[in-house]
Specification:
It is a single chain. This protein is mostly helical. Helices cover about 85% and strands about 0% of the residues. α2 packs antiparallel against α3, α2 packs antiparallel against α7 and α3 runs antiparallel to α9. It is globular, with a radius of gyration of 18 Å.
Length: about 210
């Protein structure tokens, strides 16, 4: 069991190191709104990950595989939401372009609850996250052993906590970038435009996949 858990953890590390919507959202939020808002996003992502594990346990992933329309509906909504987030980053850059003195103000406009909801929605509306949980977790469940519920719970905790640690690290990395842009509207705009482009590209990719 110990070797399986190590392999599971290693697989998670490789996945969380791969750039995706969650990573871009955390970095962009930390730069645009500050590290505390990014931490609120990280908490939303963690709750969403736990929800995906629960949904995978009750068989929603299998429903998506059996009914393509359900998967495609969530996928298109998720893609549209990523495009919306991309637009928000672009808009923040435009605001500072027109009024450079508003760099600090832009970072404090969104509430922590809104940031939490942003992280929650970004992950929940990505059906690939649910499919990922549905496919990965059963690979490390040993039916011949007793305590299947305990095994599933342990794997779920490892998945959620590992993701939370990485998300906090990305929020901290964004804090470094935030320090660079605190008094530099040019860098601030460039970073927001970059995050906007990346988020929009991920939205298009999700919509076409």
């Amino acid at each position: 069991m110990g070797d399986d858990l190590l392999l599971f953890f290693t697989a998670l590390v490789m996945i969380y190191l791969t750039p995706g919507p969650d990573m871009i959202l955390l970095l962009g939020t930390s730069v645009s709104e500050g590290v505390r808002h990014a931490l609120a996003v990280a908490l939303g992502l963690a709750v969403a990950s736990g929800s995906h594990v629960l949904l995978a346990a009750v068989g929603l992933g299998a429903l998506f595989e059996a009914h393509a329309w359900a998967y495609n509906t969530v996928r298109l909504i998720g893609a549209a939401y990523l495009l919306y987030l991309g637009w928000q980053f672009f808009r923040n850059g435009m605001i500072v372009r027109e009024q450079p003195q508003l760099v600090a103000c832009v970072r404090t406009k969104i509430s922590y609850v809104a940031a939490f909801k942003k992280g929650l929605a970004t992950n929940l509306l990505n059906p690939k996250s649910l499919i990922f949980c549905s496919v990965l977790l059963p690979q490390f469940i040993q039916p011949e052993r007793s305590g299947l519920a305990v095994q599933f719970t342990v794997l779920a905790l490892i998945l959620v906590l590992t993701g939370l640690v990485f998300d906090i690290a990305y929020a901290a990395l964004g804090r470094v970038l935030w320090g660079i842009t605190t008094r530099n509207g040019k860098y601030y705009r460039a970073q927001n435009y970059l995050f906007s482009l990346l988020m929009a590209a991920l939205g298009v990719k999700l919509g076409l996949s």
